[in-house]
Amino acid sequence: MKRFEGILIKLIIIQLVTMIVAQGLLLYTPISPYLTKIIDYEGVNKSEATQTIETFFHKE
Predict the structure, then answer these.
(1) Residue 30 and residue 50: Cα distance in Å, rounded?
(2) How does pLDDT run across 6-60, given as a tens digit for each residue?
(3) How far, in Å, CA of 11 to CA of 5, rounded?
(4) Phi then psi for 50, rounded to 5 degrees?
(5) What stretches of the chain adopt beta strand conformation (E)?
(6) Do 26 and 36 form a contact (C-beta atoms < 8 A)?
(7) pLDDT in the model for residue 50
(8) Cα separation, 9 vs 5, whole angstroms
C-alpha cells in the first residue's frame, strides 16, 4: 500500500507542476492568443461599443 501511495503522491505533484507551468504559459506569454481559441468561439475577442442608456438626467 505504501508503494501505491508514493506513486499517487508523485503523480499529484507532477500534475500540480504541469498545471502551474501551463497557467503561467497562458497568462504571461505572447503566445497565449494562439493557444486559447475559445475566445474566438465565444465572440469575446471583438470589442464592440455597446450603447448605454442614461437613467438619470443630470442638470449642469
Answers:
(1) 28
(2) 999 999 999 999 999 988 887 887 876 677 666 666 655 556 666 767 677 666 5
(3) 10
(4) -90, 150
(5) none
(6) yes
(7) 65
(8) 6
Residue type present at position 59: K
Q: Give the length of the chain.
A: 60
Residue with cell 504541469: 18
Cell 504559459 sits on residue? 25
Distance CA 38, CA 43 (A): 9
For residue 33, what are the contacts with CB-CB under 8 A and spacing of at least 6? Answer: 39
Amino acid, res. 42: E
Q: Which three cell numbers stand for residue 7?
A: 506513486
Cell numbers of 6, please? Answer: 508514493
Write down the residue that cell numbers 442638470 correspond to. Answer: 59
